Amino acid sequence: MESKLLVIVLICLFFLPLFVNQPYFLHILILIFVFATLGSAWNLLAGYGGQISLGHNVFFGVGAYTSALLIYYFKFNHWYTLLFSGIFATLIGVPLLVCFRLRGPYFAMATLAFAEIIRLSIMNSEFTRGAAGVSIPIPPPIYVGNFLIDFTSKIPFYYISLLIFFLTTFFIYLLINSKFGLELLAIRENEDTAQACGINVFRLKSLTLLISAFFTGIIGGFYANYIGYIDPSIEIGGVLSPYLGLDAILVSLIGGLGTLTGPFLGSIIKVSGSEILRVTFGFMKGLDIVVFGGMLVFIVLFVPRGILGYLKGEE
Amino acid sequence: MISLELIIASVIHGILLGGVYTTVAIGLTLIFGVLKFINFAHGEFVMLSMYLSFWLTFLFGINPFIIIPIAFLIFFSLAFPFKKLAVDPVFSRKTPLGIDMSAILITYGISLILKGGAHLAWTGNYRVVKTSYSNLALNFLGTSITILYLLAFIFSMIAPIGLFIFLKNTRFGKGIRAITQDPELAMCLGIDVEKLRALALGLSLGLAGISGVIFSTIFYIFPDIGSLIVFKAFVITVLGGLGNVVGALCGSFILGVIESISSLILPYAFKDLISFLVFLFILLVKPKGLFGK
Asked: Does B292 contact chain A (CB < 8 Å)?
């Protein structure tokens, strides 16, 4: 039911640019897809696997930096770099596998620390151009037969982000409805029992983390190409900023943890909310952080199952 | 080239630095032990206490080290609202998210509220606490140590020793240790677990208050410093074994010396990476900490 609804929404979204093409509106939709993908990837690990990562910004940021630096130094084709973004984000996830020796809050803290340390290293390294950041030129136009895809318009970005979001969700859907997904749920419910049932807990958690990192990296690479400039700033908006990791959490929590459509729903609310906050209270620096922190506390205390869980009624 | 003198200097500096980390690490490890709970907002309480110290010294010219007991009392009493908001709902109510996840998300949310609040109230500017003896230094084994650093070290040694005596000798301390080992059994023996949990939380935040004042004398003060502090404290607690107070004490010295020596050898970009590499190494080799069985 939930997935059928998502398919209908996706089809509507596919034809949407034919009717509406104000750049600002498309920009908001692109951001919604970006954060929905980020949230879905996080949700795979946390919602289905029960492993909380507070440092998903590291995968997003490394993906963004991979794409940006490959273009900057080696003049790679913009869209091929996205694959490398995914691969490098997966590789950066490998040291985190060691942290699976820790459970629950300890693992969460390790991811937060890891993300911050990678951010500081990128900020202090000359190869990544330090705090100055990297600019990415607009992707060159592509001819498909006689049809010109022009990247100065937002429409191609719209379709690419929609595609990435669709593929991520579809992949997660397949994963969750397989034996892999059931084993993952078993780990979430009780790790020791899962282990006792013969599930290789460490391998499964590791695979989930790496898959999640891969998709986060790809969307990070896309975001870098879309925004055109990235830097390692800690502030909201930086690709490596801890607030991006927070966005991943909020998006999933608002929609409903461990649901397929939750992150998309959450993303709509979160992105629109952020925009309203930025436009009306943008001059009060720090207010957005307070609001997002407050939202986190509020959701956990009062609507822990998110909107979807609330609509379905608490069991 | 790296001379012997330089190495001695950095070891001494590392020990001083490690000593300063001790108080905050012990505050964090106390909560690990009693509540099996990471307080992600611990670093933000330290940050708030740094601002407290800054404003008191700036407005009234009070010597920062005199503020230590005031900070301890203020932050000790902050534990009660914190417990009501963050700890009780997580432990008492059955939340569908589970204890671990709710605890992580709530304390992380509180840390963001405090951090954002600090940004709102005091902007992101860097501040320093100035004292009349800020520039004085003395010579020790051919290295110069600023008086301020030495004082910071001495004062940050007092809290762990005090806590240690408290845990070893008093009735409350023994109760806290009993809860650390087995809360249910402790409850059966007639120990008031709720009350002692509150006490442990108060002590932990009080220690955060103390370390904030000490940090304010030697580090820059800005809203985002909390997360850096809590990472260091976290690495130390894993190094020393989760919930192990003596381990945390040794872990701080080890981390301080490693950081100080690595800054001699490694390029600047890797200065923060090293503590995390130590952390990963310990997890691989001795996941229960250096002193774990």
From this structure: no
Is the CB of B271 inside 8 Å of chain A's CB atoms?
yes
Among candidates A19, A21, A63, A4, which has minimal Cα distance to A158?
A21
- In whole angstroms, what is the distance from residue B159 CA to residue B22 CA? 9
**Alpha carbon distance A32, A311 (integer Å):** 22
With a cut of 70, say whether residue B161 has pLDDT above it.
yes
Asked if the C-beta of B97 comes within 8 angstroms of chain A's C-beta atoms, the answer is yes
Contact by Cβ (8 Å): A258, A170: no
CA distances from B248 to A73, B237, B245 (A): 45, 5, 5
Q: Look up tokens 């860097």; give the residue.
A: B126
Average pLDDT of every residue of chain A: 85
Residue A142: φ, ψ to 5°: -115, 135
Alpha helices by DSSP H, listed for chain A, are 2-19, 23-43, 57-74, 81-98, 104-124, 155-176, 179-189, 191-196, 201-227, 242-255, 262-281, 287-302, 306-312
Lowest mean pLDDT among A53-57, A216-220, A297-301, B241-245: B241-245
Question: Both tokens of residue B170?
Answer: 């008093």
Give contacts of A288 with chain B, Cβ < 8 Å: 116
Residue from B95, B104, B107, B227 whose CB has the most chain A CBs within 10 Å, to mutate? B104
Q: Model pTM?
A: 0.86
Check the CA dihedral A268-A270-A272-A273 and report its sign: positive
The tens digit of pLDDT for each residue in A71-123 reads 888 888 878 888 888 999 999 988 888 888 777 777 888 888 888 888 888 88
- Chain A nearest C-alpha distance from B60 (Å): 28
Q: Tell me what pLDDT residue A1 has.
A: 64
The helix or strand, by DSSP H or E, that contains position B146, with its residue range, turns out to be strand B143-146
A315: confidence class by pLDDT, cuts 50, 70, 90 = very low
Predicted ipTM of the assembly: 0.83
Q: Which residue of A has its CA nearest to B113?
A: A290
Tokens of A43: 């949700």
Is the pLDDT reported for residue B293 higher than 60? no
Q: Residue A115 and residue A59: Cα distance in Å, rounded?
A: 8
A152 burial level (CB within 10 Å; 0-12, 13-18, 19+): exposed
pLDDT at A62: 92
Model pLDDT, residue B192: 81
pLDDT at A215: 92
A303 three-state secondary structure: coil
Of A183-197, B109-123, B243-257, B267-281, give the lowest mean pLDDT range.
B267-281
Taking contacts as CB-CB distances below 8 angstroms, the residues of chain A near B97 are: 257, 300, 304
Lookup result for tokens 């956990």: A300
